[in-house]
Design brief:
Chain A: Belongs to the ABC transporter superfamily. The complex is a heterodimer of chains A (about 325) and B (about 250). Chain A is an alpha/beta fold and about 325 residues long. Chain A contains 11 helices and 13 strands. The chains are: A alpha/beta (about 325), B mainly alpha (about 250). At the A-B interface, helix 2 of A face helix 1, helix 5 and helix 6 of B.
Chain lengths: ~325, ~250
Amino acid sequence: MIEVNELTKRYGDKLAVDHLSFTIPQGVVTGFLGPNGAGKSTTMRMMLDLDRPTSGTVRIDGKKYGQLHQPLKYIGALLEAKAVHPGRSAYNHLLWLAASNKIPTRRVDEVLSLVGLTAVAKKRSGGFSLGMGQRLGIAAALLGDPRILMFDEPVNGLDPEGIVWVRTLMKTLATEGRTVFVSSHLMSEMALTAEHLIVIGRGRLLANMPMNQFIDENSRSFVRLRTPDPEKLLDAFSGAGITATLDGDGAYEVEDGDMARIGDLAAAHGVALHELSPQRASLEEAFMRMTAESVEYQTDAAPQWGSEWKKES
Amino acid sequence: MGAVLRSEWIKVKTVRSTFVTLVVAFFVTVGLSALVSFFTNQNFSKLSPTERATFDPTQTSLGGVYLGQLAVIVFAVLVIGNEYSTGMIRASLAAVPQRGSLLTAKALIVLGLVLPVSLATSFVSFFLGQALLGSHKAQLSDPGVLRAVFGSAGYMTLIALFSLGVGFLLRKPVLSLGLLMPFFFLISPILSNVPKVKNVAHYFPDRAGSEMAATQANPNIPFGPGAGFVICLLWVVAALAVGLALFRRRDA
């Protein structure tokens, strides 16, 4: 079990991680979500004792990472894909890692075939594509057959096939009873893989709950409709106490609307409907709303492209 | 510690730069020493009486170390610098979070590789050099000669360990090499010829260390080969200690 307690990291006058506390549930995939620059990677590096926290602690089964004996057998981590000497082969990279934690050499061949790199195992890793580098990083994480796995943005740079492969792998690892902690800046990616969700923004905890609960609390459902005669329909709505708002697309949205009731009402008033459909706002929107105030690099209002030449004409 | 050492050994033996730098160190030192010995012998009759009086055939035959040490410095700096420039240091520390053990293992690997290479380099340089010096040659059994040949190997090894410490300190190989190369190749030799400043420059690691390769005490330097070894060793300990202190404290 991993417990993060009041973890804080300060770079100069900037707080990258701000009194972050959470516990990672065992045996499931936990998504660690936040916009770019939210402090996800910094947090993960501190969990592995690579970066020194300004204050706060991380405990793995009650111990500091540095106190673990042969840590690769406890935790396997994929941090950045290319943490490999380009002149060394994938096989030799895994070989020194295995030696450092007294992992039997046959495991090297096992994980290479598990990630599909056997054919290129003896080639210099400098020639690897981003996707192959990512696979090598995952092989390194799996080397010690650890109970806990940490992946920092594992699908970055992967082709669609690779993305599906990583998703399946994470789910498989969790079904085997392992704890999987995976970071992403994409809610849609997490919705497909994670059972539990930890959301941070500007280094602060924004949400820590099961994925289902997050979906229930954050997804908005509404009914969308289109009509050639909006005035008549809106009159009928106001008589029935229904509020409809115009969306940007010329359609109307009724929050938590009852489709049958709206359809009957339109029919009773003789208004034609061109669309009547149930809608669910995406989790992506919920996530964006939640982190809107904490986004690190926000753009200003839409820039006035071409304002110079427009003035002249 | 055994596991960490084995892992570090696999690291150095699975990249080409290790062998390239060590082979270069051997051939550059031996080659330059042979050239110096050959031309000294050719031109011996033209040497001034004072030059003849202070002529030391052993030191002449080991002269290539001055250039060959640069390859050894590159080797030692890359042992740690490569990890920082490739990001591999994070994989290393995730596998071995005990930073003291990691530094110790790297120091032992540098010691274990550079010492035999520089012993071979020193002895081959000496025998080849003496053969080329003709009638002016020294014997290994002459006073101070064997110690000087061993001292030359010890010097190369200590300079490598010192460079490893600096490598831990500065992390980026370009930075470490940019400091060490000009220092040992230019700045230190120049300073040691500037009046007054040279009294301090004598204590620089390379100046003090090269005393180890002298057969007799240099009258211009206030200490002998033994003290030179100790001073050089203190520089190594200091560089590794400061390197370790920062390595422990810093983010990887």
